[in-house]
Amino acid sequence: MRSRPTGFMLWSCVLVLALSFSMSSATAADAAWKPEKPITIIIPVSVGGGYDMYVRMMAPFLSEELDTQIRIKNQPGGAWMIGLKQIYEAKPDGYTIGIWNPGVLINDKDILGKADFDMTTYTFLYRITDEPRVVIAKADGPIADFKDLLAKGKDPNFQLRNSYSGGTALLDAKLMDSEWGINSEKIAYSSGSKTRLAVMRGDTHFCVSGLGSGMDALPSGRVKFILLLNDKHMSDVPEAKGWMKDYPELKDLPIPSDLGLPELSYNSKSARAFIAPPGLPKEIKDTLEAAMAKCVANEDLRQIGLKSDRPFGEGQGGDEYLAKMQKDKAALIKAKDMLKE
User: Fold this and answer.
1) Which residues contact 252 (CB under 8 A, 6 or more apart)?
2) What is the distance, to the nearest Å, from the Cα of residue 158 to the centroid of all Cα atoms in its chain?
3) Does domain 7-131+269-339 have CATH number 3.90.550.10?
4) Rounded to 10 degrees, what is the CA torsion of 74, 78, 83, 84?
5) Are strands 39-43 and 96-100 parallel, antiparallel or unpaired?
6) Model pLDDT for residues 244-269, shown as the tens digit of each residue
7) Could you tell me whether strands 39-43 and 184-188 are parallel, antiparallel, or unpaired per DSSP bridges?
8) Which residues pair with 170 in a beta bridge?
9) What is the CATH number of domain 133-259?
10) 99-116 per-position pLDDT tens digit
């Protein structure tokens, strides 16, 4: 088992690795649209997090594919909404794009209303990762496994506590209550890392986390995974292949169907995708999407991701991913009362 670099060390390694790999050829000459000036990628969170690292890993490769400079602008604030609003209002000319977190879909004008626009009207370009979420418990705590969590959640003499941060994590816990018969007290924290720390300390019994963020906590030895919220096992998750080498026991992590549980009506996967303003012309969208697909398929970039513990998935085209976001939005509209704290 190897230790995982975190924080500034990991971010610095990403930059060094990305800039040290050279790519053999650009393909912009074959594209219908050819950028004539730098492209700005807006990241709606601060420097150093997972979304930021993925963009910085891809930027040199995308620059080479498009034969233009890539500029990165971190615009944190408003729980993603300030940066996302800037992307939404930018001119749809291909020179301003951004990174997307599906968890922010709950802010859509038809759900929680924190955005004053339909968030599925972005131009979705390409999804680069699609990590399932995991249920995390304290390694030496009172919850042995997910079967035990189910039993304790139905025991009137045991007060099961869940830590969450954000609307989708709250929805995960509430759906487990309503669809799996679990009764948990839900305690809010200001960030995902603090929800995991609460589990480590024993303040709460479990939390739901994206796989990558959960893997950051696993080497501490203070937490364990007890359920993979997915319809496929860990060995079939492309993003998990590198982690499986260090933690082969993850292949035995159960999924809901193993325990006779139905799939939750909404599955809030931790995906990362590139978006552009609404109304992006098709030839520009096609050029950007094709370049991103080639980047994600590039073995040099995939190796950088593995070495940085930020692996790339199989990728998904923008139109197909948009269809998923529209389906997710419909499910969230039905469940929006559960999103209220």
Assistant:
1) none
2) 32
3) no
4) 140
5) parallel
6) 888 999 999 999 999 999 999 887 78
7) unpaired
8) none
9) 3.40.190.10
10) 999 989 989 999 999 999
